[in-house]
Design brief:
There is one protein chain. The protein contains five helices and nine strands. The protein is of the alpha/beta class. It has one domain: Vaccinia Virus protein VP39 (Rossmann fold), CATH 3.40.50.150. It has a nine-stranded mixed sheet. Strand 3 and strand 4 form a beta hairpin. Helix 1 runs parallel beside helix 2. The longest helix is centred in the N-terminal third of the chain and has 12 residues. It is globular.
Length: 189
């Protein structure tokens, strides 16, 4: 990933945290990987950094879910942050080519807590979402069910408890990305 977009001093801790994650043993070893990011707003940077740190993928699907998503601004942010010029709009998604990798971005617009037909995924990533999902009793069980075997679930409020989940030790520097003190990572086994 071209990290020139985060070269300013205010992002130094973020880059160091993702570099530390990349050096860790936390991996998703698949050529094709799906990252699911609920309540994402228009953030494409952190999912890209996570994919870079956790995988050596050839093809990735990023599924962004929120009440309102502006695909044009997300595409602009992707192109600006990666210095990529290859971009193609399809009916249901956008395709980007970057460093001989294909990244498809899908948008789930609406209340994800009411969506019973969630996608399967290899990486689940949430930030400040637990406030919204805490009263939705079906959401976490549905997320666990949709996680592929070996999937990582990354959250700033680790309340994912299930016999199929194993807690993952992570670099403490990750907390500098803006996660809350109850941050955690679990893997579906």
């Amino acid at each position: 990933m071209d990290k020139g977009f985060l070269a300013k001093n205010e992002y130094k801790d973020v880059l160091l945290a993702f570099d530390k994650l990349k050096q860790s043993r936390i991996r998703v070893d698949k050529d094709e990987v799906t990252l699911f990011y609920p309540r994402c707003s228009n953030d494409i940077i952190k999912p890209l950094l996570l994919l870079d740190a956790l995988t050596d993928f050839k093809k990735a699907r990023i599924i962004l879910a929120d009440q309102i998503l502006i695909s044009e601004s997300i595409a602009e942010a992707f192109l600006a942050s990666t210095n990529s010029r290859k971009f193609r709009q399809f009916k249901d998604f956008q395709r980007f080519s970057f460093r001989d990798k294909t990244i498809d971005i899908f948008y789930l617009e609406g209340d994800i807590l009411l969506n019973k037909d969630l996608p399967e995924f290899d990486i689940y990533f949430e930030r400040a979402f637990q406030l919204f999902r805490k009263d939705s009793v079906d959401f976490i069980p549905n997320i666990i069910k949709k996680a592929n075997k070996g999937a990582l679930l990354i959250t700033d409020f680790l309340d994912f408890n299930h016999k199929s989940l194993k807690k993952v030790k992570f670099p403490e520097e990750l907390k500098s990305i803006g996660f809350y003190k109850f941050f955690g990572i679990v893997r579906k086994v």
